[in-house]
Amino acid sequence: MCGIVGILGKSAVATNLVDALRRLEYRGYDSAGIATVEHGALERRRAEGKLRNLESRLLSEPLAGRTGIGHTRWATHGRPTERNAHPHMTANVSVVHNGIIENFRELRLALEAKGHRFETETDTEAVVHLITDEMKRGLSPIDAVREALTHLQGAFALGIIFAGNDDLMIAARQGSPLAIGYGSGEMYLGSDAIALAPFTDAITYLEEGDWAVLRRAGVEIFDRSNARVERPVIKSVASSLLVDKGNHRHFMAKEIHEQPEVISHTLANYIDMVEGRVNFPDLGIDLAKINRVTISACGTAYYAGLVAKYWIERTARVAVEIDVASEMRYRETPLPQDGLAVFVSQSGETADTLATLRYCKVNGQRIASIVNVRTSTIARESHAALPTLAGPEIGVASTKAFTCQLSVLACLAIAIARARATITPQQEMELVAALMEIPRHISSIIRNEQPFIDIAQELSKATDVLYLGRGTSFPIALEGALKLKEISYIHAEGYAAGELKHGPIALIDERVPVIVVAPQDDLFEKTLSNMQEVAARGGQIILISDAPADSVGCKLAAHIQMPTVSAFTTPLLYAVPTQLLAYHTAVVMGTDVDQPRNLAKSVTVE
Ligand code: F6R
Known about the structure:
The protein is an alpha/beta fold and 606 residues long.
């Protein structure tokens, strides 16, 4: 994952920039660079590979500027070459960027038509030229950035410096975290407090949509409507700890909020952003020839696999066999010759998942695993390890790892579909475009948590909660129920909405909240009918849908308005409100959110 740093220093900042970047190495990167303002002009040094390459470059060609930005790049748009490494710049502006600019192609075409010449394959360069273009129209650097931000779509964090301005740095956050650090006569910028720990422990985290003007004397912060805002300065504990909670009360909250960023990074690992196609690693098996995919996992990871069953069967027309690993390992299930077996595990150490993997391996399957810990046993024992780039997940209840698992599985489904020609190149591009929009939509949901806080007050009074969904919303209902029960200790069950009348409907009365996960997809009308059955029995319906509340024809206790997205990507988006409902309910109940009773993060025993 990319990392950003920036320093407005009292003396030359190059060494400190590299030190700060070193503290972001844990995020992973494949090139690095810094830029400073040198006697009024912008200068930069960049290098492929590790930071030591950048350091040796700086030894032979030092930079003396007191104002600088730095970046570790984890390649998304364009190969990990020096040319594509950040900072990107024109004579006037230099930018470091983390995240994805979704509309960079349109911006680039428009700017090229105006005579701007692009040098790289990156999405970031569009930002540099956009700001430069505004400045050429006569806007000041601050006005130019404010204007440019209105044209950017996607989830991103930016650090920007300007030629001829030794006391100015602008930061912007939309989807990817950014922290501002306060020193004595110096100011800092970093992707997280860890990067800034050697310089300061006084930190302000920018909120969604914020942008900030840093000068040595201090910072002015503006919200997305350009109103001047105050954000709290907190004392960071990052110097003693590699992973901190930022300005969140719990790791789980932080991890929910990290999703736009980590999903972007995970998608970027499996998508060629420039082509708009999936770029999936070779699994060592001919995906066109497989006639069955076997998936196994536990808990939340199993639900990710269950979503994938719908995706793969519908999009790639291949049968998927899926079971929880604790069952599959003993079922002695017959396996097809030369089949593909996929294992999903955040920790990569779950005992049952590992045992099932070994069973499948011995029985001739090609083993692919989707893991968050790349060095884990499951990763090592697989023929192909497919990493999620969720970063360390500390909260025991899985959130960002789940949506990152879904991101990889969505790309896998598309890769199989392409190999089997069950989708056209045009359809592939549409699915990929829909996936790339998801981080932005998640940002829009987590921007306003008040509806979830309000509903949580009511949910916390319940003793039983039901979750309903159809199609890919069924696993999301199961996952929502699991999230609620594991951190709030309220009994919750997920059901396929169509199963309701085969038993669970007996549980419904006016004390039972029923959370209905119902995007307006091809099953929407059917889910609505099931919802009517609940309403007729006095159940308290909490509807999560992009359909307006007044269009569903029955009384709702609450409604969470979702943006409309492609039917394919709804599970990625609809997981987020279920996480927030569980989180806020647990907060109301006063439970130990990050370490719920009886649960462990890594389940290495049967
Ligand atoms: C629930 C949760 C668990 C894990 C399960 C598998 O929030 O986190 O259900 O998903 O224990 O763990 P991994 O993914 O590490 O194999």
